[in-house]
Amino acid sequence: MIFASMKKNGAILTAFALVTTGSVALVQQLTAPRIEAQEKNHLMQTLTQVIPTSKYNNQLYLDCVESSAPELGPNGPHRIYRAKLDEKPVALLVQHITPEGYSGNINILTAVYNNASIAGVRITQHKETPGLGDKVEIKKADWVLSFNGQQVTSENDSRFNVKKDGGEFDQFTGATITPRAVVKSVRAATWYAHQNFDALFAQDNLCQQETL
Amino acid sequence: MSEFKTLAHEGLWKNNAALVQLLGLCPLLAVTSTVTNALGLGIATLLVLVGSNVTVSVVRNWVPKDIRIPVFVMIIAAFVTIIELLMNAFTFGLYQSLGIFIPLIVTNCAIIGRAEAYASKNSPLLSAWDGIMMGLGFAAVLVILGAMREVIGQGTLFDGAELLLGEWATALRISIIDFDNQFLVAILPPGAFLGLGLIIAVKNYFDERKKAQAQPDPSPEKAPRARVTSLT
């Protein structure tokens, strides 16, 4: 008898598992293109924020390489998008991560010209303290704009520090760790992009296949 | 009172999921830093609750007692995943700010609690109504707490409403007080605990006053306990 009830219950459970996972799979199928479009849209919006659209004329999200260089932080490989004007290299849009934030990783996008000057920086993801560390976000404060036009002149460029450490970037009242982590990471990523500028442009394009 | 009225009273006030049963506190405390987030999670929870209640009620006669819990869990998990996918597709910005708390709706005991205590014994129509009322009660507490924390912490209301409601909602943003620095305690988790405690206190105050009016002779009485599930 116990086997009979096991069989029956097993069958009922299986049926429910099939129906529920089936409906999830169906919804996933239906929403997949829209979710992908949303993500791409979001990516494009971020990419166009860090570099003026007049500087390049290729589709940024269709032109990228990947790199696992330690300068770009943990959890690699990191995507690097390549901006070109009439097929000539203009800038690299480097996605990099710093683990030195106050709580968890900070994901950063930095656009770098060939001469190691910075076109723009955005924080794409972080878990910093609301009201203090989250001022690195463009929505909360203009702080990230202070990177615009800055040039990194050496690997340990002392200007690329927060003021407390003798550099040129403001820290926030009550939050030094977050800006310090961001500034250091931006400096390392910029220098890496500068050093490997031609090599990265010479690599094969990994994003060619992506469609919108 | 008719059954519908009783259910409405239970869900919104007397047996409110957040204030009396104290269920689903994890998402409740975590996302209520702004009204928009609170409303988003409230609506998501409401939809899951109605969906799971109706489904559980429809299948209640085919599910043997021994395996009802795994079946309910599967139904709820499926609804949460579907809602999560839909939010990802249609309200991308909000999906990003609610983050991991959407999957956590699964662990909101209010949902399985209602499935077990009510929907598994009653008709789909009544169960749907129960889901709506319980969900509304939960969402209302979320929104009140979100409003309190947003006003005290940021000095605004409906900041970021366009993530949930579309571009026109940018106009909804109200700046009430301008702070140079945000009042951190309200935004951080302790503020959520304090806020929820205050709301519960206010609710209890009203209950006590009503009781005192109804029976002028207050005999000592054991504290009423919330009944989450009933025995089967």
From TrEMBL, chain A:
* InterPro entries in UniProt: FMN-bd, Ion_transpt_RnfG/RsxG
Q: What is this protein called?
A: Ion-translocating oxidoreductase complex subunit G
- Membrane-related topology note: Single-pass membrane protein
Assigned keywords, A-Z: Cell inner membrane, Cell membrane, Electron transport, Flavoprotein, FMN, Membrane, Phosphoprotein, Signal, Translocase, Transmembrane, Transmembrane helix, Transport
Positions of the FMN-binding domain: 101-193
**Species this protein is from:** Pseudoalteromonas luteoviolacea
Task: Report the principal subcellular site.
Answer: membrane
Q: Which Gene Ontology CC terms are recorded?
A: plasma membrane
Q: Does the keyword S-adenosyl-L-methionine apply?
A: no
Automatic annotation (TrEMBL), chain B:
Supply the alphabetized keyword list.
Answer: Cell inner membrane, Cell membrane, Electron transport, Membrane, Translocase, Transmembrane, Transmembrane helix, Transport
Membrane topology label: Multi-pass membrane protein
Q: Where in the cell is it found?
A: Cell inner membrane; Endomembrane system
Q: Name one Pfam family in it.
A: Rnf-Nqr
One Gene Ontology term of the biological-process aspect is: electron transport chain
EC code: 7.-.-.-
Question: Quick one: where's region Disordered?
Answer: 211-232
Q: Does the keyword Nucleus apply?
A: no
Q: Name one GO cellular component term.
A: endomembrane system
User: Which parts pass through the membrane?
Assistant: 12-32, 38-59, 71-87, 93-113, 125-148, 183-202
Q: Which family does it belong to?
A: Belongs to the NqrDE/RnfAE family.
**NCBIfam families with a match to the protein in the record:** PRK12405.1 (NF009070), rnfE (TIGR01948)
Protein's job: Part of a membrane-bound complex that couples electron transfer with translocation of ions across the membrane.
Quaternary structure and partners? The complex is composed of six subunits: RnfA, RnfB, RnfC, RnfD, RnfE and RnfG.
The entry's protein name is Ion-translocating oxidoreductase complex subunit E
**Origin organism of this chain?**
Pseudoalteromonas luteoviolacea
Taxonomy, top ranks, is: Bacteria, Pseudomonadati, Pseudomonadota, Gammaproteobacteria, Alteromonadales
